[in-house]
């Protein structure tokens, strides 16, 4: 698997699972009984460019391909949600994997909001923001408390927006 990149292995039902990205896309593997073998219970994603596991709280994996972002429930092998947007180039899970945050490069011509918060359980979009920073910075510049009761987001050079609970529209002061 020359040129392959693996994500951090995740513990699941007595074995570790990992995603491997190579020239063919992303495939899932599992370590079981001291052997590495393909995990045929999970789908393959040819053409996927990025992949990450969620926290240990929920066994999700997310991948970006030409369609958008796929979230897979690793406990049953089913796709949990799909964000259809080929322009997404960064994503991050919230600490409890309640939310998936996606971001694409800001388009000054359209001015469309490009940072989106998705509720994974329903697949619903819960908030949108204009994000002029580099999309991959969302992991550094948007933070939740471990219990997800507070979210802080860099809003400007010297401005941080803070949200409480699931209300991402009202800024907490």
Short account of what is shown:
The chain is mainly beta. The chain has a single domain, classed as YVTN repeat-like/Quinoprotein amine dehydrogenase (Methylamine Dehydrogenase, Chain H). The chain is built from one helix and 16 strands.
Describe this structure in words.
The protein is mainly β and 173 residues long. The protein has a single domain, classed as YVTN repeat-like/Quinoprotein amine dehydrogenase (Methylamine Dehydrogenase, Chain H, 7 Propeller). The chain has 1 helix and 16 strands. Strands 1, 2, 3, 4 and 5 form a 5-stranded antiparallel sheet that branches. It has a 4-stranded antiparallel sheet with strand order 6-7-8-9, with no helix packed on it. It starts with a strand and ends in a 9-residue tail after the last strand.
Question: What share of residues are in beta strands?
Answer: over 45%
Please tell me the total number of domains.
1
Shape, principal axes of CA atoms = globular
What is the CATH class name? Mainly Beta
* Low-confidence runs: none
Please identify, by name, the CATH architecture: 7 Propeller
The N- and C-terminal alpha carbons lie at a distance of: 51 Å
Please give the oligomerization state of what you see.
Answer: single chain
CATH topology: Methylamine Dehydrogenase, Chain H
Fraction of residues in H or I helices: under 10%
